[in-house]
């Protein structure tokens, strides 16, 4: 069984004494770091979309959301399961753990884990950092960190949008935390995860055409501008706090 962090913490709250076992410290954003053996094809699961397909209208259309989640993300999960089924020792690792240790994985599954593990982790984050009640600005410590790193929220938005428009072909625009704690705007190609470079992905926007083409056609810049209306800042803040506490 795979739990997101919120579900896991709820369970922890219900299980007296669980924190004393050290479980709280080892919880990751998507899955427990270790899990019991399961049937081979079901180690990684497609997380449910946390809102209706049309919930992000008019900024992201329902058809895009349905295909993006039910077809594209589902395919990454299926292919990631197929890749790790060759190596039982990989099936006890989280998808995030696989990406962080990508260079140590067996060479014949490294590309499949990069593409499909990255696709799974990136999209699992993506659904959660958007919300029908999103938009506005970050608050709390993240707002201060953004001001300190980029000068202003507007300057950060400009840098993030530029990272998205300048990514040639398919990929992601990111706000990441470097190992020294500094924030950085960057982009990656394909489904490459910042985790593979030792960077923590605080937030990212999917600039593959499958994320916007039905509604925006070739206007990626318009999609990037409108996307800010659905950003779930409380979840992004939570990820920022997680970035500062994870090793
Ligand atoms: Mn996508």
UniProtKB/TrEMBL annotation:
Signal sequence range: none
GO molecular function: metal ion binding; superoxide dismutase activity
Transport recorded as keyword: no
Cellular component terms per the entry's GO annotation: cytoplasm
EC supergroup of this enzyme: oxidoreductase
Assembly with partners or alone: Homodimer.
UniProt function note: Destroys radicals which are normally produced within the cells and which are toxic to biological systems.
Protein's recorded name: Superoxide dismutase
Organism this protein belongs to: Pegethrix bostrychoides GSE-TBD4-15B
């Amino acid at each position: 069984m795979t739990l997101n962090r919120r579900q896991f913490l709820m369970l922890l709250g219900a299980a007296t004494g669980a924190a004393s076992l050290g479980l709280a410290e080892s919880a990751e954003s998507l899955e427990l770091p270790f899990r019991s053996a399961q049937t081979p094809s079901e180690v990684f699961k497609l997380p449910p979309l946390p809102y209706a397909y049309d919930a992000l209208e008019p900024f992201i259309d329902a058809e895009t959301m349905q295909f993006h989640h039910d077809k594209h993300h589902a395919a990454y999960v299926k292919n990631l399961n197929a890749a790790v089924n060759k190596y039982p020792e990989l099936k006890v690792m989280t998808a995030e753990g696989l990406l962080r240790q990508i260079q140590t994985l067996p060479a014949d599954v490294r590309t499949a884990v990069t593409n499909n593990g990255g696709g799974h982790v990136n999209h699992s984050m993506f659904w959660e950092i958007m919300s029908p009640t999103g938009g506005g600005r970050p608050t709390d410590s993240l707002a201060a960190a953004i001001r300190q790193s980029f000068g202003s929220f507007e300057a950060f938005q400009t840098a993030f949008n530029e990272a998205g428009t300048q990514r040639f072909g398919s990929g992601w625009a990111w706000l990441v935390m470097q190992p020294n704690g500094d924030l950085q705007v960057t982009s990656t190609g394909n489904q490459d995860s910042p985790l593979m470079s030792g960077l923590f992905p605080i937030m990212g926007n999917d600039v593959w055409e499958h994320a916007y083409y039905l509604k925006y056609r070739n206007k990626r810049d318009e999609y990037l501008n409108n996307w800010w209306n659905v950003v779930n800042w409380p979840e992004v803040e939570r990820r920022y706090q997680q970035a500062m506490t994870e090793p």
